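User: I'm putting together a teaching handout on how sequence relates to shape, and I'd like one worked example. Could you take L-gulonolactone oxidase from Hibiscus trionum, show the sequence you're using, and then write out its predicted structure as tokens right after it?

Assistant: Happy to. First the sequence, then the structure tokens directly below it.
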Amino acid sequence: MYCSRWLLGVLQLLLWWSITPVHAIPPRDPVQCNRTACTLYNSYGPWGDRKDCNVKTVSYPTTEEELRSAVAYANKNKLKLKVASKFSHTIPKLACPPSHNSMLISTAKYDSRIDVDSANLEVTADAGVGLRELIDKVEEAGLSLVAAPYWEGVSVAGMITTGAHGSSWWGNGGAAHDHVVGISMIVPANESEGYAKVIQIGAQDQLLNAAKVSLGTLGVISKVKFSLERGFKRSITYNFTDDGSVENNFVEHGKKYEFGDITWYPSKHTAVYRYDSRVSVDTPGDGVNDFLGFQPNEILISQAIRTSEKLMEGTKSVNGNCKLAATTLAYKKLIANGLKNNRMIFTGYPVVGRQGKIQTSGSCLYSPTARIDASCAWDPRIKGLFFYESTAMFPVPKFGDFVKDVKKLRDIKPENFCGIDHYNGIMIRYIKASSAYLGQPEDSVVIDFNYYRADDASTPRLNQDVMEEVEQMAFFKYGARPHWAKNRNLAFRNVRNKYPNFNKFIAAKKQLDPQNMLSGDWSDEILFGTGSVRSDGCALEGLCICSEDRHCSPSKGYFCKPGLVYTEARVCRYSAPSSSNL
């Protein structure tokens, strides 16, 4: 009863927020320093292993020569080197250097140059330029960037180096790096060359296939050149319908709509098909995509939702999760998930707008006034939402069977999926085969899903066995590849075997960074197979797959058990004291 009243209060706040103007607190600088050292955070707060990323020296170059000098300093002094942007939305510790004998470069102030070449339909930008700034400059010239991730809080270098993407099987596809035609990169050099040099990697250079998605391990990206197209608009309609044929419809949907996607809410037996196609620039409409999840949320609302989640977790209230999921889905349908016909409100389908206003969003990043009543919902300063994000990329022939397996697991107890559905369900997108060595080697289907993360690493989660079984089913039964900038650590297990050109990437790394100056603990674990230590409770946070009960939380009733559908999975499942273990 108390949980229902609490949810009612949250819904009243949501209604009030929907009619009240709010202004967001800008995200904090991910690099925080005191008198003796600095700490690199990601935008969600704790890293996957909950260990701080400490570094003694941070450089903030503003020009390419200053960037080259910083790399030279690191090389001359035999320091390990990593690069971070002003956004830091990467979940794994890609940007974290070793804690000793290392330094960090931030590109937060290296963001002044954006050069649009209208004649050749290209744009070149400094590595630290934000995606929104790039898009706005391109659109001012009457042109459009075809591919971009749905979240605009990324730098151009960070976006490509981690394989960020939107959704498309058309043309060059939905991944931003597959629209890159040139990169300026600073690599270590010998003393006679000044310890660091700038190399130009052009469209015909085989090194571009390594540099486009490099995880920051080949060199330091200085500038990125993208191909462009003449400006265009898009027309979007969401169709909320039954999920009965998702496994049969996904291929046709991806082929029919250039920018289509599907959002699946398993517990509600609902699929939302996004009909999203290119239209002429003279088509009437001034719409924008202000995705609900990326809007500035009232701080009180974010805190209230988090408190309600913790209450439901503590009382194991599946019904509370389901009420929140149902209300969230209904609200998304009412407001078209943040689409706005006239930049202000949603009045009906289709929503037509310029590519630059439709392709990506992130209004919670900006503060138009001095008010501080809202923020991004996950801002760690406000103790709001705190969650995991799992992202898996499937070969097309395997995806339909994966959906069928998830439905079998769902049908055992549909409400166990409410914890996924009250975030954003399971988003399904499309990625075309890429020439990048660490890009997708074949046309692929991508899923993303978010779910609750506890404040404390030792605290198990409600129905966590379900999320773990879906996760293991994706990555191990069906061989899906993990998104490089998302996921829990276990998703990267044996990842090198999933990329046929992985050895070519390693060869490029040995060529450009023979001393492994740009390596770190996390990248070494992925690229060179160094393992992590298994410990008590390691499976609770995805640091391992359980093989013993101690990897879960037996003292709190969570034991290592086989999956219910994918029986080779090993998951942490709750067994009530009064009942026998499953």
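A couple of points you could highlight for students: The first helix runs from residue 2 to 18. Confidence is low (pLDDT under 50) at residues 1-13, 15-19.
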